[in-house]
Amino acid sequence: MPSRPPAAAVRTEVAVPLRFSDGFGTVARVITFDGLVDGREHLALGLGGRVTDGDPARRRGAHPLVRLHSECLTGDVFGSQRCDCGPQMREAVERIAEVGGYLMYLRQEGRGIGLYGKLDAYVLQDLGLDTYEANLALGFRADARDYTVAAQMIHALGLGRVALLSNNPDKADQLGRLDVDVTDRVPTGVHWSPSNARYLTTKAVRGSHTFDPPARAVRLEA
Prior knowledge:
By secondary structure, the chain is α/β, with parallel strands linked by helices.
């Protein structure tokens, strides 16, 4: 049975104009919260129209599009090519702005192991381990992310039902256990580069992410 997490509440909301390096821009409603169970400063970025359970658009069946995006300093800020985090965030902002919804920016660097832990894992990856093996070798779980705070934020925003922008089935599974009705899982693009080919293949093969890695990436992994 789903179990609703402790209640959180919206703390502040402020408009922030966004502009990406390719020229795309939009305005986000940046929302902060009180009562999140881990005490961290997670954010929700409201994009496009306001679609909540009480809105006319919601009653017509248009559930807000939601992306759970785990913080990645190296990819989001510095443009690292070792992962696809930066391009996924850029894609998500535009797609959500088109239809209305939220990007949840979650302070879960390195799949929940922290920035230094992630960089330590990079060292092991350069010695031949994949991303999951490196986390385990450092004494962490392969993926240590917990989406309880994301569910708290979703409930605080009055969203009983959401369409989830993700290739990761674990996100939908965790939200479902936390009393969030995921009506649809919308796939994201595959942002392949020579530098992240093995990373993407590992996500598909070991992490059960629902996309087919490019043939070049599969050959590199093999």
